[in-house]
Write a structure and sequence with these properties.
The termini are close together. The protein has five helices and seven strands. Strands 1, 2, 3, 4, 5, 6 and 7 form a seven-stranded mixed beta sheet that branches. The chain is globular, with a radius of gyration of 15 Å. Helix content is 33%, strand content 23%. Bound molecules: flavin mononucleotide.
Length: 168
């Protein structure tokens, strides 16, 4: 079994969630953790693709929202390419491939819209088999940190995903 976890993160909260998920996967399968700046790989060896990013303006980030985060919100860095661009470059999988998505969102105020749901829609249209519900993890303010217990919830979500994979 091979999992690929792709993430984007400005302050590091989504990265921390991606690492918690990858760490949990690594007890049962091979896992590669990559940032969305890299081009999508060939999918023949991947059994499970997990994509995660921050929610900006009710959906996946855009170049404009990432720049706004750095210019006006104090974000330390902005990736050149987020998961929106990564997914735009992704081809239809040649063999059946499962996929799941997550995002991070601010705790207050609770806003509608979710990068995870938008990413899931794109993956579903490409023909990936979605497993689990798109999952949101909450941060304080815009910069975080993650709320207490969110990393544990991420690890539990990862365990849940592995139970939805067929036996190998
Ligand atoms: C420009 C901008 C727009 C945002 N829009 C939303 C939003 O619509 N809904 C939400 O819950 N959080 C929103 N946030 C908060 C982000 O989700 C939060 O910064 C992110 O989860 C932090 O993750 P990171 O550390 O991986 O970048 C926004 C943040 C920025 C900078």
């Amino acid at each position: 079994m091979q999992a690929l976890v792709v993430y984007e993160s400005l302050w590091g909260n989504t990265e921390a969630v991606a690492r918690a998920i990858s760490h949990r996967f690594s007890s049962t399968m091979a896992v590669e953790l990559v940032v969305s700046d890299a081009a999508p790989p060939d999918f023949t060896d991947v059994d499970l693709l997990v994509v995660g990013g921050p929610t900006h303006a009710f959906s996946m980030t855009r170049a404009t929202t990432r720049q706004d985060a750095v210019a006006n919100q104090g974000a330390p860095r902005a990736p050149v390419r987020g998961i929106r661009e990564w997914l735009a470059d992704l081809d239809r999988p040649a063999t059946p491939t499962r996929a799941a998505t997550f995002d991070t969102r601010t705790d207050k105020p609770r806003l509608p819209g979710s990068a995870a749901r938008a990413a899931a829609k794109r993956l579903s249209r490409l023909g990936f088999d979605l497993i689990g519900e798109p999952m949101s993890f909450r941060v304080s303010g815009y910069g975080g940190p993650l709320l207490d217990g969110e990393l544990e919830r991420a690890a539990a979500w990862a365990t849940q995903l592995t139970t939805e994979l067929p036996p190998h």
